[in-house]
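Standup, Tuesday
Yesterday: got the pipeline producing structure tokens again.
Today: sanity-check two examples.
Blockers: none.

Example 1:
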Amino acid sequence: MNDLCADIGYKSINHVGEQLCGDHVDIVEPDENSMVIVLSDGLGSGVKASILSTLTSKIISTMLAEGLPLEECVSTIAATLPVCSVRGVAYSTFTIIHLQNNETAEIIQYDNPQVILIRNDKNYIYPRTEMNIGGKTIYKSVVRLQEGDVFVAMSDGCPHAGIGIAYNFGWKRDDIIDFMTMLTPVGYTAKTLATMLVDECDKLYGHEPGDDTTACVVKIRKREPMNLLFGPPFNRDDADRMMSLFFSKEGKHIVCGGTTSTIAAKYLGKPLRANLDFSSDLPPTATIEGVDLVTEGVITVNKVVEYAKDYLGANQFYEHWSLKKDGASQISRLLFEEATDISFYVGRAINPAHQNPDLPINFNIKMNLVEELTKCLREMGKRVKVSYF
């Protein structure tokens, strides 16, 4: 094993006039050392295409995760998919990226645009082996992983973008490669890279996509631990133990909450200094020597949860938190973009200031925020551990 991990992000836009997307991405993690990512594109668009792609991706990801051979997966799909009454065929293309031990990637492709691999900020040509399974031509590749590798899987909505509008024959593969190799050196997350690619396709379609369009990006990176302290302990006598455990952990340290930061400053024997920046509607941050970020508690974390939910969906708020200096934006950058392994240290003490019935804050809301945030982070592929005090 090594200290590499996979950062995975994807985004889809629907065919104009359709409420459902005919593409589907499914990610299954059978154990800590294996991950199966499937991008499927159903025939046509709308409800039928959505059913085809969802069934395909679910069947493949589940069967491969259980260790069943590819031949059995493909034959199961052929026997399971409903036949289109108009075209008389059951058809769904797919791309599979199977990561094993964070050392190798097995890429299996059927009729989707070929996966792009960017290595050392350049297009990397990887070998392909042609297979024939159930009359279908399927390509298989095995790639040894390196830190910084970026895999770009997509549905045919990406190369079809701009046909008859920006380009006569769509957005060529070489142009997509140029677009992505321009972005990868910047250090964007997989989700942001997928978002930027699909947003560019949307522009080329004139914001009226002629096909369902999906991009799924897998970025190989080193693990990065992060620690977040939120709230004082229920028992005051546990404060030193809580602080000792928190500050002994490897990685960056974030402290959220006024009382919490006072306890942290006292434990470290360092002054707590407020940053008098009122350019944001969120409470200002503070500084303690030895702590990477100090913020207010519930209001700031609530904003982080809002950003996290959007990040998993449309990712529309990226421009808000990626550049701003308020506490919520800084926490979002640290948790969403930098961290891979996050340890929460949550105090169960009831804040007297939150017991005012005129305030929309109470103990349960604080605990719910922790639950919602950890759930979102796990959906982002982060390893999250929560310790309560």
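Example 2:
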Amino acid sequence: MRRVILTAMCFAAMTGANAHDWYENKVDPVTNFKCCGGRDCRPIPQSSVQSRADGGYLYLPDGFNIPRDRVQESPDDQYHICENNYVITHQPYLRCFFAPRLKVSLVLPTPR
């Protein structure tokens, strides 16, 4: 039984590390700062994000207004955020934001 539990724990640790790997080499397209400094990045639920008419997004929990030029394409069709806290004020700040690629319909209008 111990072997099964140990194996499951090792597998979970490896899966978590691999899932986080894709953030490591990403940088914000505007600030050029690295997105991830350890545990700064994570997937977020679609319900916590609101798209704006200008192509940007609003991250509701922190009130981040994310301009379109800081939005990067997510590799897994989920939303992801990388954020950290300022040392003195402990206020959160945005490092990077990833959104699913927009799906464009290929349905062509029928000729009349």
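Quick observation on example 2: Residues 3-18 have pLDDT under 50 and may be disordered. The CA atoms of residues 29 and 70 lie 6 Å apart.
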